[in-house]
Write a structure and sequence with these properties.
Length: about 80
Amino acid sequence: MLLQSHFSQITLAFTQRTYFILLQEVELLKVELEASQRQLEGKDEALRILQSMVGVVQKSFRYLVVKEREQRKSSCHSSSKPPRP
């Protein structure tokens, strides 16, 4: 009976130690997950900023294309006029 009691104490100690180690591992994983989530949020914000910048560049490019076409049309119309004497 004494041997069985000693074995139960050892088993309990081992189980408690294993439980403690697992709790530490869970805490570490929780911290790593939170850090990964913050990093992902930062990347998401950077992506939104870049998408906004792309939108601004596209609008500017369209504006420049329209202006260039207008200039070409006006230069074509002005060059078709006969020269003044």
